[in-house]
Protein: Tyrosine recombinase XerD
Organism: Acinetobacter apis
Amino acid sequence: MMNNKKPRIPAPINIPKQYTFLIAYRDYLISQTVSAHTRNAYLSDLIQCAQLQHDPLPSWNKEHISDILIKLNQQEKSPRSIARMMSALRSFFKFLREQKLRTDNPLASYKTPKLGRNLPKDLSEADVVALIHAPDLTTPLGLRDRAMLEVLYACGLRVTELIQLRIELLNLKQGYLRILGKGNKERLVPLGQTSIMWLEKYLNEARPHLYRSTIDYVFLTQHGGLMSRQNFWYAIKKYALQANITAELSPHTLRHAFATHLINHGADLRVVQMLLGHSDLSTTQIYTHVAQIRLQQLHAQFHPRG
């Protein structure tokens, strides 16, 4: 049956009498087809900012902006909240310039705060071992999942790279995979003896039971088709539950663990960058922060003066 329910439109923000100059700005946002949610967010943020200053908002200069940023930080607003408020102020002063009410931009010299990148969830080496050992090896699907987990952790692949891995990209004799990653960039990734062993076991003992067509993907569903990211994500959650792993997981948990554990054991950052297929080293550097946090936790836990 078709769902005819329309998305709920939020009620408009009530603009206090002392801020009636925002009514024209609200009408401007409507004319620019800005969504009701964004309009409300901008107006709410502007009212909050205006309440922190005695001078009327339309007359603010660079000093007012500097002062408001200090006050927002004193209130311990998050970088995300401050960035959103800065966006609202930029939009408001752009409106004033377009209406010929101002010729300058008091925010011209201020950059929007950089939002911190979310750190990957940390998974201990013991948790990785427990997760990898969870599949039932007496079934073809269990053997498949064990091989997938071993390869994922050994190579640090993206989940999409794993499920789209083709037979022709395997070189088990020389011990590497040929991966076509983001932007069609090719890289060679070493497998390691353990993952080679489980891949061979899966290919010899389990895949023939799943193979039903000429499909050349390595890892197949129980019906012989291509696995989806959702299939594999459900499997990871199931095995984490079986292994009593309480850490928060994501589809890329083992990719993150691969990188963090390599760095924990002294791997060079540029080597990890190449293995992960990152085009920019700054993307890989996030794992040094994860490793540092883990080292601090271990120090606090085990050092007699931690």
The domain at 17-98 is CATH 1.10.150 (DNA polymerase; domain 1). The CA atoms of residues 6 and 36 lie 14 Å apart. The first strand starts at residue 170 and ends at 171. The chain has two domains: 17-98, 125-302.
